[in-house]
TrEMBL record, chain A:
This is Nitrite/sulfite reductase. Residues 52-110, 346-396 form the Nitrite/Sulfite reductase ferredoxin-like domain. The lineage of its organism: Bacteria, Pseudomonadati, Pseudomonadota, Alphaproteobacteria, Rhodobacterales. Residues 119-271, 409-521 form the Nitrite/sulphite reductase 4Fe-4S domain. Keywords: 4Fe-4S, Heme, Iron, Iron-sulfur, Metal-binding, Oxidoreductase. Signal peptide: none annotated. Pfam families: NIR_SIR, NIR_SIR_ferr. One of its GO terms (molecular function) is oxidoreductase activity. It comes from Pseudoroseicyclus tamaricis.
UniProtKB/TrEMBL annotation, chain B:
It is an enzyme of class 1 (oxidoreductase). It is found in: Cytoplasm. Residues 231-252 are annotated as: Disordered. GO terms for biological process: hydrogen sulfide biosynthetic process; sulfate assimilation, phosphoadenylyl sulfate reduction by phosphoadenylyl-sulfate reductase (thioredoxin). GO terms for cellular component: cytoplasm. This is Adenosine 5'-phosphosulfate reductase. It comes from Pseudoroseicyclus tamaricis. The gene is cysH. PANTHER family: PHOSPHOADENOSINE PHOSPHOSULFATE REDUCTASE (PTHR46509).
Amino acid sequence: MYRYDDFDDAFVRTRVAQFRGQVERRIDGSLTEDEFKPLRLMNGLYLQLHAYMLRVAIPYGTLRAEQMRQLGMIAERWDEGYGHFTTRQNIQFNWPKLKDVPDILEALADVEMHAIQTSGNTIRNVTADHFAGAAADEIEDPRPAAELLRQWSTDHPEFQFLPRKFKIAITGSPNDRAVVKAHDIGLRMIRNEAGEPGFEVLVGGGLGRTPMIGKVIRDFLPKEDLLPYCEAIVATYNLLGRRDNKYKARIKITVHENGIDTFRDLVEQKFIETRAAFGGADQELLREIEAAFAPPAFRAVDTAPFEAAREADPVFRAWADTNLAEHKDAGHAIVTISLKKPGATPGDATAEQMRVMADLADKYSYGELRVSHEQNIILPHVAKDDLPALHDALKSVELATANLGLVSDIIACPGMDYCALATARSIPIAQEIAERFEELKLEHEIGELKLKISGCINACGHHHVGHIGILGLDRAGVENYQITLGGDATETAAIGERAGPGFPAEEIVGAIERLVLGYLDVREGPEETFLQAYRRLGPDPFKAALYPDTKDAA
Amino acid sequence: MPLDAPIGERVAALNGRYRHHGATAVLGHALKDPDVGRVALVSSFGAESVVLLHMVATLQRDLPVLFIDTEMLFPETLEYQRELSERLHLTNVQVIKATEAEIEKRDPFGLLHKANPDACCDLRKTVPLETALSQYGAWITGRKRYQGGKRVTLDFFEEEDAKRIKINPLAHWTPKDVQEYIAENRLPRHPLVAQGYPSIGCAPCTSRVADGEDPRAGRWRGRDKDECGIHFIGGKPVRGIPAPGEEPHEEMSDEGVEVLTTEYEAEGGEHAAEETSMNVIVTDTGFGPETYNDEPMDLGSDTNPAELPEGWEQAGMIRIAFPSFNDGRGFTLASGLRAKGYKGRLRAAGHVIADQYAMARRSGFDEVEISPELAERQPEAQWLARADWQAHNYQARLRGRRPAA
């Protein structure tokens, strides 16, 4: 894994010192609140409904055990004993005091972490496939490129005051687990005809109030052109993006209003300039970073004990069948630890859980962890003969929920319980749905089903790309939940369609239950997932299940 | 008791009737009690206003809510007023302002608050409110006993100069009550509260309050003034309700005028006038005067880099406008000019802040031109702190340029 060199360390510590100074100058009045706000936001400090919130970046979702341990320490010492893993590979602390924030940043710097550019109209934390470096289907580990992008975007002098925030996601696998089509820039690694790895570059994707699927701006970009090409895109957007209307300022609108062809022409023109500015130093650095990301030396593993445990223990089997993914080394597996225990807040982890996961990473996963945009934690390299012991350890701290990809593995934004923008609650709805399906004991029969909940039109819960999406709105002071169907976050990305009128809070759980039971009635067999059935049959049978009373009238 | 009974009697009866009620009950009864008359809520949309606004929204959302826009408020307050009105679905918020003619006559330069804060409150707050309130029999205020000073003996109902009743439903609330109400009802807070402003009035006369200070210490700090004068006796605005034995000190404000006027003269004197004509040029060595004697070529922040004015390559200086510090187009324009080979002087001019100095230099600017007001607010040291812009520069490392030692 990449380790900070002296340059990175000095950079982060200087930023902490600058922020300390900015806090002081805000207090003495030399910075107005208007001027302080973007500076605080560039350091990840938000003002939320009840208090400040500090958002810490977990670049490309990769954590070392000691970093996870430090996050637990911060949660305990300066927060209320827990942290919230977000849908963009960040962790949020919801209760820091302003005076403590410079100290928290210092503690993060101690383990090579920061909160820089997790907010504000700038390039945000670069996210990546959470199975990066471990997945069997990967062309190359995308994290070296992501680290290069992190360094390039950090403190980029031109791009701290963009028209609006800017998000980049990268995947090294043709199977997109990083939702690259819903990002301002999406990078999907592919091979060209000569077999060389490079990127398909997408631009202008995004969710929010105007969901759009990213458009291809370059079919194939050689790896060495990554920084100058991204710089050309962001520079073009910086000049062309609208600044008159916050809701039309994202690059998806810029691309939509100007057309992808015009936008591409401008970018390619600018690319001539930006390409000349890079003299190869970035590529040298990339090679060093790549060396740092060399996989650990995987030990030889006898998989027989794993197979035996799987046969003998049905609880272990249920967990293994849902929460393991194929590793590039046949003796190892990728383990996802679900932070979605029914009844718990999706994405929350206590300080104690963070410490346990750090210890388990040290013991069973070569000291590495990952954070997924689906708000789960991953142990990327677990030898298969260790799996039964790991499962036992997880069970003892209630982290062995076997629901990955199932209906209760819900993505939910913080909602009105924490967020000033939210118009409805999302966490309690997620909890109620998960608990209901837990009672029905149908979850494993239902199979893969991505349910995503946003508490307002800004769509932090990615509801547009959920197989079932729930959007909480405020209708004349009453919470109302709209359902979208058929969304997809993968390489076959699609925006879900609205099913019909919304439901009040007390009816939404029943509606979801009718919908899912309706799916069980119409599917061809257990192999046909909800999304496949929806694509085969269209929305009608699903709408009929949702709105039984209006069926006769329709 | 008929409405034409003397106000003093009605107030005494109301206080007796509701002495043991809580805030919501008092408010609920006040809105219905025939002894009260026509009621409005006067709200500053300040630090604690959300409590009464929320109570009114749940009891009677079309109750007239009078919001006095002194045109000196924090932008955060205006934004908060809009958001809160929408969120609480208040349907009858009325914005009260001084007339343009009055402002033109008494405070044409918007500086009256420096010379005579009482007169400014009078012009922008007290008179417009008095005019608006003339249609009402009673008004609701958020004043509380714990706010101290002249408020420690506050009752639920007060007589205001034989004209109206003042209703103070929160008279007996403690700061803890207020905070709990806001938290329990998940109400959005005024964004400045978390910035250290527990009491929020007009921007020029509100300052931050330190830990341990009285929450209202930030209002008219350094002035002999602790109420805005929305409170009347004998038809004239006075500073608050006089405590027993205390007479309104009308002559005191006259003294105040004199002293403060002198101070204002000093500030606006010849020296200051000289300064306002000269912008400050910031370079790596700090502040300096103008050193360029030609006309620079001026580019707006909306310049299309493909359509630069003729002769830009030869221009001795190109000056790029920053209409606002959060308009970052100038940085990309500058970097683009350098990439196209421009070798002359490149200047960023306008609203650039000290924290952006390193960004400007790294984007290819040689210098920054700022107004004397900005230079005063962000003195030289804050700019010099970023004169180290060549250190810790990721771009230099990625582009293979060596940072200067």
